[in-house]
Design a protein that fits this description.
With 121 residues, the chain is of the alpha/beta class. The protein has 2 helices and 6 strands; from the N terminus they run ααββββββ. The longest helix is centred in the middle third of the chain and has 28 residues. The strands form 3 sheets. It has a two-stranded parallel ribbon with strand order 1-4. A two-stranded parallel ribbon has the order 2-5. A two-stranded parallel ribbon has the order 3-6.
C-alpha cells in the first residue's frame, strides 16, 4: 500500500473519531448510541472488505536463486542468507555482504538442515 493511501486512511479514521466524540458530547444518549452502532457496523464491513482484498492479493515469494546485497554502515549490523529446513546444502544465490564504518558487523551465508519444528532426530 502506498504512503498516501495510508495517510488518507489515517485521516478518515481520525475525523471519524473526532465526529463520534462530538456526537457523544453534544447529543443525547439515544442519538449517541444509534450513531456509534451505525459507525461500528460500517467499520466492521470495511474491515471485512479489507480482509478479503488482502487475502485475494497475490503472495510475493522471493526467487530461490536471486542475488542479494546486504550492507552495514556506521555501527550497523547486517546479515544475509537463508535458513532452510531441508539439508540440501545448495546456496540460494550470490551474496554480497559488507560492513563499513566503525563498529559495523556483517555476516553472510545459508543455514541448511535445521529442524524448524524442534523435533529431535
Amino acid at each position: 500500500m502506498q504512503r498516501g493511501t495510508l495517510w488518507w486512511i489515517a485521516g478518515v479514521g481520525g475525523a471519524a473519531t473526532v465526529a463520534l466524540v462530538l456526537v457523544a458530547l453534544l447529543t443525547s444518549q439515544e442519538t449517541t448510541g444509534l450513531v456509534s452502532g451505525v459507525a461500528g457496523a460500517v467499520a466492521g464491513v470495511v474491515g471485512a472488505v479489507a480482509a478479503v482484498l488482502a487475502l485475494r492479493a497475490p503472495a510475493v515469494t522471493p526467487t530461490a536463486s536471486s542475488d542479494r546485497t546486504v550492507e552495514a554502515r556506521g555501527g550497523g549490523v547486517a546479515a544475509g542468507g537463508d535458513i532452510n529446513e531441508s539439508g540440501g546444502g545448495a546456496s540460494s544465490g550470490h551474496r554480497n555482504v559488507s560492513a563499513s564504518g566503525r563498529g559495523s558487523v556483517a555476516a553472510g551465508g545459508d543455514i541448511n538442515g535445521i529442524d524448524l519444528n524442534r523435533r529431535s532426530s
